[in-house]
Design goal:
This protein is of the alpha+beta class and about 180 residues long. The protein contains three helices and eight strands, in the order H-H-E-E-E-E-E-E-E-E-H. It has an eight-stranded antiparallel beta barrel with strand order 1-2-3-4-5-6-7-8. A hairpin with a 4-residue loop joins strand 2 and strand 3. It is globular and about 45 Å long.
Amino acid sequence: MTFPSRFFRLGSALLLAGLLTACSSQSNPDARPPQSSLEAAAIEAGVISDPANTDPTGLYSRDRDKICVVPSATAFRIGVYVDYGNDYFCSGSGEATRSGETLRVDLTSAPGCSFEAKFDGDRIAVPGALPDACQKACSRRASLAGLNVERLSDSPSEAAALRDGRGRMLCDVGK
């Protein structure tokens, strides 16, 4: 074997490996980007939740703002309460379905208020821009937009007990 032919074979092998890698990464364009090794290690160690395998059932809160999520016959029942104080608040309930890291929320108490919230296993983040219909769930200039809450509990019974400022149950499983 001569010196140039050895490099030719090595170069050909590397080129073939590169082409196979490029082809295989394009076979599923909708695939979720791979986790970083640090994120994967943290999930494996239990330091952070794996959002792909975490049930969103529970009670979420930040200050006086709360979201409850409980299982229902079709997917999940969800309730949202935002309290700005001084009669500025939002309160609504409805249904949610989950697809990966997305919760598709339909607040049936405010017809036409549907949006996709981000769910990462420990937090729910409502987008900063919502349909105008979501204002039906709010008083005065209060808004649900940009609400970001963290999980307090994964207990369905604690979540089902959430009430808004007027005493209405938001995730009542009897509804």
